[in-house]
Design goal:
Elements (H helix, E strand, L loop, with lengths): L1 H26 L12 E7 L16 E5 L2 E5 L4 E9 L2 E9 L6 H15 L1 E6 L5 E7 L2 E7 L1
Antiparallel strand pairs: 1-2, 1-8, 2-3, 3-4, 4-5, 6-7, 7-8
């Protein structure tokens, strides 16, 4: 009976260890510093106040492509390029250049707001859905950019 009891204890121990490891894998969210933005591309799906987000205007596409400390993409109408730096979950973005195409006023307003949000970036993380979230502050108003 001693050997049988030892095997039962061993099996129970292995099951407990397996359960704990699986819990850690599926429950623990890695901090943003473990998510390197380099070589990633994103499409904006919402922005603004987290409790009442807005979506981009119909027939516009706002994108962000991160490569070698540079972010570039479409701001709605024009293309942009910027430098970015990360330190842990902190994110700093400095717009370097924007093309100068004219579009309808509502699209240009959206573009200005998006670029201001990027320049006001404070931090980033990847949420449970695998979406990039960039927290920003513009003139004491905070918001959240959410990308797929």
């Amino acid at each position: 009976m001693g050997i049988l009891r030892q095997r039962q204890i061993t099996i129970i121990g292995l099951l407990l260890v397996t359960f704990v490891l699986l819990s850690v894998i599926f429950v623990v969210k890695l901090p943003a510093e473990y998510f390197d933005l380099d070589a990633t591309s994103w499409i904006l799906i919402s922005w603004g106040e987290p409790t009442a987000p807005s979506t981009p205007l119909n027939n516009t596409r706002i994108t962000a492509k991160f490569t070698s400390n540079t972010i570039s993409g479409s701001a709605s109408c024009n293309q942009y390029i910027a430098n970015y730096q990360t330190q842990e979950s902190k994110l700093i973005i400095n717009i370097a250049a924007i093309s100068r195409k004219l579009c309808p006023e509502d699209i240009m307003n959206q573009e200005r707001r998006y670029l201001a949000a990027l320049e006001g970036a404070q931090s980033y993380n990847i949420n449970d859905k695998g979406q990039l979230q960039i927290s920003y502050m513009i003139e004491k108003t905070s918001g959240l950019l959410v990308f797929n």
